[in-house]
């Protein structure tokens, strides 16, 4: 077979001609903002030597934040042990109000001098939240982060409902609520509980319902069952 110069030129042209550009697939639209109130938990690990300054900074943040449009409440709690850890519990009227606040928040700067770890900020929507009665001087508050593998979400929620319903009827229960992280972390939940006294809290912890709930969800978990107990920061 005779190969001519024209044939070679045509082959070279074919080999060097770039393929047509692929049109990129359109980006998926962002998820719609969640409906209803928004809850924000900010966990803060503090240098123990800086505790007084931390509490002063947290109080100043609470006072200025509660004056903002859309702020429902801002509560400050200090972990029973170790005393160097705090949580700020905020409720906002809606997602727009929370985002407007987040854009101007100076909390990280106010706590920077005493921080021994970055702030852990969790923006969440309501899964099951009831009205809160007035707190008491001896009240204790629990925050439990529950992370399950996504296929286990339905099983977790099935276990949560009867446990929450029962816990709200127990002696000394101030609140027993569940909030859920926004997309893409909808498999992360927080149990937020308040008890009139430490004795009431311990009675709940030892109840058959609490023990059964933990037994049911143990095989569903994707991370440590992170359970922390606080009192109001003073």
Mean pLDDT: 91
Strand arrangement in the largest pleated sheet: 1-3-2-8-5-7-6-4
By CATH, the architecture is named 2-Layer Sandwich
Rg calculated over all Cα atoms: 26 Å
Biggest sheet features = 8 strands, antiparallel, barrel
Which descriptors would you attach to this protein?
single chain; 234 residues; alpha+beta
Short description:
The protein is α+β, with helices and mostly antiparallel strands and 234 residues long. The protein has helices at 5-16, 51-66, 95-102, 107-111, 153-167, 198-205, 208-217, and strands spanning 38-45, 71-79, 85-92, 120-128, 140-147, 173-181, 188-195, 226-232.
Polypeptide structure, described:
By secondary structure, the chain is of the alpha+beta class. It has a single domain (38-232), classed as Alpha-Beta Plaits (2-Layer Sandwich), CATH 3.30.70.100. It has seven helices and eight strands. Strands 1-3-2-8-5-7-6-4 form an eight-stranded antiparallel β-barrel, surrounded by four helices. Helix 5 packs antiparallel against helix 7 (208-217). It is globular, with a radius of gyration of 26 Å.
């Amino acid at each position: 077979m005779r190969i001519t110069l024209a044939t070679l030129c045509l082959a070279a042209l074919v080999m060097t001609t770039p393929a047509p550009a692929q049109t990129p697939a359109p980006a998926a639209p962002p998820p719609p903002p969640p409906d209803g109130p928004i809850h924000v938990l900010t966990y803060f690990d503090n240098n123990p030597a800086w505790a007084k300054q931390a509490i002063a900074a947290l109080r100043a943040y609470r006072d200025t934040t509660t004056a903002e449009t859309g702020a429902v409440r801002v509560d400050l709690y200090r972990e029973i042990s170790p005393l160097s850890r705090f949580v700020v519990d905020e409720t906002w009227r809606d997602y727009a109000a929370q985002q407007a606040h987040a854009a101007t928040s100076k909390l990280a700067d106010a706590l920077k001098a005493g921080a021994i770890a970055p702030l852990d900020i969790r923006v969440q929507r309501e899964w099951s939240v009831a009205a809160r009665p007035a707190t008491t001087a001896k009240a204790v508050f629990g925050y439990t982060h529950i992370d399950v593998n996504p296929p286990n979400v339905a099983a977790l929620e099935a276990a949560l409902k009867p446990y929450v319903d029962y816990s709200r009827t127990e002696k000394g229960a101030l609140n027993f609520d569940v909030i859920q992280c926004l997309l893409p972390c909808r498999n992360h939940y927080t149990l937020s509980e308040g008890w009139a006294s430490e004795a009431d809290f311990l009675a709940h912890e030892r109840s058959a319902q609490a023990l059964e709930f933990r037994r049911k969800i143990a095989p569903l978990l994707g991370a440590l069952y992170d359970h922390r107990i606080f009192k109001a920061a003073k």
